[in-house]
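Hello,

Our lab assistant flagged a job as stuck in the queue for most of the afternoon. It eventually completed. Since we weren't sure the result was trustworthy after the delay, we are filing this so someone can double-check. Below is the sequence as submitted and the structure that was eventually returned. Let us know if re-running is recommended.
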Amino acid sequence: MPSIYQQALGDDYERLHPRIRERFGLRSEAGVACIGRGVMDRVWYNRLAALPLAVGARRHLMFPQAGEQVPFTVHNYAYTDRWGRETVSWVRKFRFPGRLRQFDATMIYSDERGRIVDYLGNRQHLAVDLELSVDPRGGIRIRSGEQRCYEGLLQFRWPQLFTGAAEVCEWYDDAADCYRIEVDVTSPLLGPVFRYAGRFQAEFVKCPSSALPLDIQPLREERRE
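-- returned structure --
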């Protein structure tokens, strides 16, 4: 089966830079994970959003902390979740002086929605539709869409006015021989909310689903998409 990103991009997947295709080609049946290590040149947040960011940080979402030259890792593992869905982890760790911040997500491809659904946080309580495209550099561009909250029996769609729209672009810089990433989250009410940009190298390691690290999977898996 193609990776969830290949399913989402269709024929456009072949337009990606070969190194980006490699990173976004993870499949559980291949038994290969990707570990990225690098530095975020800048991490920034809007101080007006400090309180909601602090609440989100408790569930490994965005966080109210800024810095420059921040050591960074990202762990991508492909596995099958308890509902039988092909899943890719995004466990990002930012090492600030005296504090480690973590930003988690797990992604699936939803046949029903015809797109990738991104579950944010370590309890999958927030599901976000993603639109993928290829940028002129052969990078992958990801834009967030509708957001839904699932908490116990509670479920609702977040009004657009109160959501944060995210745009992510990851590409390969041939001249510098590294991956580069830019993330920008904005709010209709506050404008820019959270940003980071930097570079990293990637290592591909063998890891069958049976050997998945315990801290990669979320504490709770949500069936609703």
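-- support follow-up --
The delay was a queue issue, not a problem with the job. The result is valid. The helical segments are 4-9, 18-23, 50-57. The longest strand covers residues 191-206.
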